[in-house]
Amino acid sequence: MLVRIDRISEHVGQEIKIGGWLYNKRSSGKIQFLQLRDGTGFVQGVLVKNQVEPEVWETAKQLTQESSLYVWGVVRADERAPSGYELDVTKVEIIQLAEEYPIQKKEHGVDFLMDHRHLWIRSPRQRAILKIRAEIIRAIQDHLNQQGFTLVDPPILTPSACEGTTNLFHTKYFDEDAYLTQSGQLYMEAAAMALNRVYSFGPTFRAEKSKTRRHLIEFWMIEPEMAFVDHEGNLEIQEQLVAHIVDHVLNHCQAELKTLGRDLSALEKVKAPFPRITYDEAVELLHREGFSDFQWGDDFGAPHETKIAESFDRPVFITHYPTEVKAFYMKPDPNRPEVVLCADLIAPEGYGEIIGGSQRIDDPELLAERFEVHRLPKEAYAWYLDLRKYGSVPHSGFGLGLERTVAWICGLEHVRETIPFPRMLNRLYP
Predict the structure, then answer these.
(1) Where would I find the beta strands (DSSP E) of 153-195?
(2) Rounded Cα–Cα distance for residues 120 and 106 (Å)
(3) What is the pTM of this model?
(4) H or E element, residue 333
(5) β-strands 316-319, 332-333: how paired?
(6) How far does Cα 3 stand from its chain's mean position?
(7) Strands of 218-227's sheet, edge to edge?
(8) CA dist., res. 293 & res. 286, Å (int)
(9) Which end of the chain has fewer CB atoms < 10 Å from its terminal CB, N or C?
(10) CATH class of the domain whose range is 117-417
(11) In Å, what is the CA distance from 27 to each residue of 33, 63, 99, 175?
């Protein structure tokens, strides 16, 4: 029976069989050290020449990087080993002898690594990132499920846009125009009227010609929507979710975070409640910090978000943005209609916005007015207006960008490493 590397601690002193790949190999003449990986972890196999059959030694000598193989050996605890264990190898069977591997120990350029992304993800660093991504997804779904949310799947092809069609991918749906979704939010609002608390988790697409380290063309969004939840309740749900995600990763991904060299002290500070400042206060902060040309009504860019975040040791909410810079569906503040009941959650350490959310307009007349202001076709959004005609209630929601969240928690420079096969402005391969 095969034993996974992440389970070898259960077999100390026993001979086991592992199926995996050769990550690296070195030899001191009479000893061969095989760095083995099987997708669940890494372990070193030690092959001593005078302790194995000659054919086993010769078989191991043939091995090339990323050759696939079965290895038999006795598990031994070793505090010096990165995994805490080593394998005293007794037998080796080659499954496939790999050709010369393109990715070597030397430094490679980003374009080369991205061209070989299908192989690059085998490396310890990339594996660690993808494992953390998976645990973040697990944490999100576990938390939302425990809080009474129901998973609902919105369509990928839509007849209209959530926030205008400027940055959408257009396609033909037989004889009609259609778009790849930029958000499942509008459909989640409909689902919330049926199921109370819902969320979607799926790919979204933005046809933005952006090359920044924060942008992808295809990315994944978690979009909860809640009936009978106001602006304040929305913020509390968001901060509880993010605090849970970080706590989960700290508890389940210590080895992966160590591989990445992540500063854990920065993550350990992420506890709810999060600080909150209004858009007005954020503008005043920027003026004090030298951004004197920033005008009230402007939207924040990456440098502005970074400067604001530097004043806090955990994520910070920026609330009450000007109505004119936000989406048509956001509810104006009844006490100050020129701003809306919304918030962006800005991650620390310069990672920018990871969540955008708001209380939604629940008044059918006001929503119809917003259609006019934003020049949205009434026929395309008639179903959305129906939600306000037939039992409208106060409701709120938000969208969490998975890749930006992964980048922040992992401490990555660019979001391209946060997704298995990134789609960027000039990259559709592999």
Answers:
(1) 157-158, 170-173, 176-180
(2) 13
(3) 0.96
(4) strand 332-333
(5) unpaired
(6) 30
(7) 150-151, 197-205, 218-227, 395-401, 352-359, 342-347, 316-319, 276-278
(8) 9
(9) N
(10) alpha beta
(11) 6, 12, 20, 66
25 strand-pairing partners: 34
CB distance 126 to 417 below 8 Å:
yes
Residue 45 main-chain phi, psi, to 5 deg: -100, 130
Residues in the chain: 430
On the 0-12 / 13-18 / 19+ scale of CB atoms within 10 A, 154 is buried
Residue carrying the six token digits 């605090």: 243
Q: How far apart are CA 140 and CA 234, in angstroms?
A: 16
Quote the tokens at residue 375.
Answer: 């020049």
Q: Which residue has the tokens 């010769």?
A: 58
Tokens of 14: 């026993």
Of the CATH numbers 3.40.1410.10, 3.40.640.10, 3.20.20.70, 2.40.50.140, which one belongs to the domain with range 5-96?
2.40.50.140
The set of long-range contacts for 122-125, using a CB threshold of 8 Å and a minimum separation of 24, is 122/21, 122/23, 122/37, 122/66, 124/42, 124/259, 125/259, 125/260
Ordered alpha helix ranges (H), 163-275: 185-195, 231-252, 254-260, 264-268
Place of tokens 């076709």: 377
SS3 148: coil
Quick check: 100 and 15 in contact, CB under 8 A? no
User: Helix 231-252 crosses helix 124-146 at what angle (to 10 degrees)?
Assistant: 140
Question: What whole-number distance in Å separates Cα of residue 246 and Cα of residue 351?
Answer: 15
Rounded Cα–Cα distance for residues 321 and 343 (Å) = 7
Tens-digit pLDDT profile for residues 94-130: 999 999 999 998 889 999 999 999 999 999 999 999 9
> Which sequence spans correspond to the domains of the chain?
5-96, 117-417
> pLDDT tens digit string along 189-209?
999 999 999 999 999 999 988
Domains 5-96 and 117-417 agree in fold:
no
